[in-house]
Amino acid sequence: MRQLIIGFRRLAMAGTGVLVLPCQHGSRLASRTIASSAAAYIKSSTTCSFTQTASLAQGVKMLDQRKTFTGDFFFRQLFDEQSHTYSYLLADITTKEAILIDPVLEQAKRDAQLIKELGFTLKYALNTHMHADHITGTGFLKQLLPGTVSVISQTSGAKADKYLVDNETVKFGRHELRAMSTPGHTNGCMTFVVEEQGIAFTGDTLLIRGCGRTDFQEGDSRNLYRSVHERIFTLPENFRLFPAHDYKGNMETTVAEEKRYNPRLTKDVEAFVELMNNLNLPYPKMIDKAVPANRECGLYDIPKEA
After folding, report:
1. Measured distance CA(223)–CA(230) in Å, rounded
2. Which helix (H) or strand (E) element contains residue 87?
3. Is 95 helix (H, G, I), strand (E, B) or coil?
4. The pTM is what?
5. What Enzyme Commission number(s) appear in the record (predicted)?
6. What contacts 24+ positions apart, CB below 8 Å, involve 203-206?
């Protein structure tokens, strides 16, 4: 019996389907029959274990350690409840130079006050694209914080002090942001990447478990799919992604998460195009007001209470 137990253990470790045990009567047929039954059970259990292990390994990879912000890098995520827009304040703590991504007009005074309180100088106010759901705060911030330079993509169709082309960099202190062209939601959409900190700001191109709509403002589903898969999804998988909007209370995601769980962009391109063509979304409430204003850097219609 002891030899039989030892044999089964060896069988499980070796993965073989045949076990031959010494037998005083020279009968090997019984041994083979027992071994075949045991091997069938062991193989089934082993396969299940391999599947679970592979799934676990994927999960571990998805949760690869994020880069830790360097000690001289400042990051603050800000929110506008009305438009569900995220703005992002980044700065070099040593030089005090700061940039602000996707500011909202109604929050310009709040943002300017925060920048003053922190002792920063706002060097650039950038937009990831020409928004249709809110008026940008860049123009008003130029009045509140003189010397601020407004920035947007060269292909956006909007006015600004500085225009960016694909892979152009913007510097604040010793830090650097790279502007990556990711059209599809609009022609001028850009994703801003800060390589050293392992972060990217995706605008409306890629949202958390979603993406920007493609049924207005030069929207093109195929272009958006290509932008995400060829530009954003090729960033390191542990890069943290920060969108311009979220409507469910999520604040950030990662490349690995969206590659695995985004219900739209895990589809093949044809299925994605079909889905986007049949969303039947309502006409954007702010588009007729926001787009003309944003063409003028947000100076078109600043409300008195702003």
Report:
1. 10
2. strand 85-92
3. coil
4. 0.80
5. 1.13.11.18
6. 203/102, 203/128, 203/129, 203/243, 203/244, 204/128, 204/129, 204/131, 204/243, 204/244, 204/245, 205/128, 205/232, 206/182, 206/232, 206/241, 206/243, 206/258, 206/262, 206/265
pLDDT digit string, tens, across residues 137-169: 999 999 999 999 999 999 999 999 999 999 999
Give me the amino acid identity at 212: G
171-206 pLDDT, tens digit per residue, is 999 999 999 999 999 999 999 999 999 999 999 999
Distance, CA of 136 to CA of 129 (rounded, Å):
10
Per DSSP, the chain holds a count of helices (H) and strands (E) of 8, 14
- CA 173 to chain centroid, in Å, comes to 25
Superfamily for the 68-296 domain: Ribonuclease Z/Hydroxyacylglutathione hydrolase-like (3.60.15.10)
Strand order from edge to edge, sheet including 97-101: 73-80, 85-92, 97-101, 121-126, 149-153, 162-164
Q: Which residues contact 132 (CB under 8 A, 6 or more apart)?
A: 216, 217, 284, 286, 287, 290, 291, 294
CB neighbourhood size of 246 (10 A): 19
Each domain of the chain, given as residue ranges in start order, spans 68-296
145 CB-near residues (< 8 Å, 6+ apart): 112, 115, 116, 121, 122
Helix (H, G, I), strand (E, B) or coil at 86: strand
State the virtual CA torsion across 185, 186, 187, 193 in degrees, nearest 10.
-70
